Structures are given as structure tokens and as C-alpha cells.
Amino acid sequence: VAPTTTTTTVAPTTTTTLAPVTMHWDLTTSGGGGAELQILNGSNSIIFSQVTSGAPQSGTFVTDIGQAPLTIKYWWTAGSGNIVRYRVCDGSPGSEIYYRGDIDNTVGSDTYVLSPTPFEFWVHGSSGVTAYPINCDGSAGGTTTTTTSTTTAAPACKQVLINVGSPDRAASDDGKVYFYFTDCFGDPYLLNYNTNKSHFDSGHCVDTSYSYGCYILVSGIQTPCTSSSLELGADCGGATTTSTSTSTSTTSTSTTSTTTAGPGLTQVTINIGTQAYANGSGELTFFAYCDTGTTLVDTDVTVPIQWVGDLSSVINTNVVIYSGTNCGSTTSAGAEPGEYYSTMTINGDFTPMTSSTQEYVGGGDATPISSCP
Length: 373
Prior knowledge:
The chain is mainly beta. The chain has one helix at residues 166-171, and strands at 20-29, 34-40, 46-51, 57-64, 70-78, 84-89, 96-103, 109-114, 120-127, 144-152, 157-164, 177-182, 188-193, 197-207, 213-218, 221-224, 229-235, 239-248, 254-261, 266-273, 283-290, 301-309, 314-321, 327-333, 341-346, 358-365.
């Protein structure tokens, strides 16, 4: 009998490891109140949660870049008269990325989207009227510093022209191309487009002394563009700004500025807000309003909004602030009856982004509110 030979072929195994994202966190308390720190992934699912206790707490949480963009959510949870606050830093010691103070039971919570999400960041939280999160330089919270500066932006201020190519859109997770830059007032921007563009004027100007460019999301990872680009257009003329700023851990940065913009446009910041939860028909009333109540828009401005509830319902809607007014509202359905607010964002560009005299920029989420401020 001839011997039998058996050959077995084992296919090679390929493992893909996504880059880790590390959050260092600490929570301090004073009094009997409570707060909760949550981290949500790009699908608005909670992937980390920690509540305060009677003693200081700290730890490290590690996920991967495939969960990006991450959202930080800080909640008031208990305590009559309790105030909670939190601060986000890029190092220890490092620079401040974001600060929110004075969250009480009427505010409920505050969210901040880390976009783009860094590979390492620090969150310092506190609960209690007299408790403050530590500063990014490691010093005790609650201190106040005042600085006065005069800044002249050279003519490195250029129009932002958008080029979007089909290959990038086809390769992306969501069909969008993302463009990041800092405008000539020092405000960071992240725009996205889901249609092809060629030398499209975005209505913005970029300070070229800061980094700028574009990326797409591939398996949740920010990937450089190959067929799209942020193109520099005509000289916007720069801006000269004289400002006195007071930075304090009990509030976010407060700035009084006199600005002469190169393009001759006045910046108008537009905020959004809605109720804490949907009514019995699954409806909410959404508001969009100018940051300064005396400022009136001089053209009809459409504000796109996306609301996500704690039961994962999603409402996409638009609010129009009509010319000559400073606030608009609309009522939209799509939530579960009584579903609570989870996150709400300005979902794309305003229409238009500018008028002949004004430039419209995104502000914050003021939820819960029940009328125009």
C-alpha cells in the first residue's frame, strides 16, 4: 500500500491595530453635590463613565482612534445649589483646550467634541460651589490672571477656496471631506462637504500662520486627502485686533475686543438650544440666536441642527433667523416621547455664511432653553 501524504495550508493572519487614544482624568469634590464625567464615541455611545465621590479620584482611560471623534460630556447629578465645572488640556502641564464653569441643575450638562481627537488629553472635573478643576499648568483652580495684548495679523490672511474630488468622497466612511483651519480672528473651523467642489469660495478667510488642510474618515481614522484640497485665494487684508482678556477658572474666557476685519465684515456668533426632553408627541422646539441680543442679522440665515437623544433618536432640522431679527425657532418631531437630550450640534454650514456686512460663525449649545433668550 502506497503511503498517504496530507498537505495542510494555513492562510496567514493579518491583524490591524488602531492607534490608542488615552484620557487622563481627575475629579475633586467639595460639599454633598455630585457630577458625572462621560466619554461618547463617534456613534454617540457612552464608552466611559465616572461619578464623583466624597474623595478625590483619578485614573486613565484608553480607547482607540477608531472611536473618534470623542465627545466629553460633564453632568450635574445632585446637590441643592451644587455647581460643577470641567477643563480639558492637551498636556500635564499643557495648554487649555476647553473650559466650562457654573453648570447647575438648570443647565444640566455640557458637551465638547474633540475634533480632531488628540491621541492623549487630560480632563479635570469638579463638583461643589467652592471646588474648581485644576489648571492645565498644574496649579490650583480658582485663580485669575489678566493679560492685555495687541495683535496685528499680517497679510497672511487668505480666502479659503474648497476643492472636493470624487475619489476622496468614495473612499470616506460618510461621503464627506473635512477642511480644518484657523480664521483671521483666531477662531478654529472645521467644515465638511459631501458634493464635488472646484475653487469654491467658502466665505471664510484663513490665517496661514496656523496649520490648515483636509482629511477624510476611513474606518474612523483621519486620513489625508488625495483628490481634495484647501486652496488659498485672494488676500483678505488681515485684521488688527486690540483686546483685553480675563481668563478665570470660574468662567470660560471673557474677551472685550475692537476688531477691524480685512474683508470689512462684522462677526456674528450664532448659538443653538432646545428643551431638556421631548414632549409627549416626540417633538422639541429648536432655537438659534445671535450671541449678543442687540445684534440683528441683515439677511435670512438658515442654521442646520442635529439633535441626538439618550435613546439614540436623531432629529435633523433647520432654523431660520430672519433678516432684522436676532432669533428664530422651529418645532420638529422624531424623538421618543419624553426622550432626554444627549447632544446637539450645528450640522454643517450656515446658509449663507456671510452677507454684505456680516460673517456668521458657530457658537455653543445653550440647552435647556424654552424660548428665545
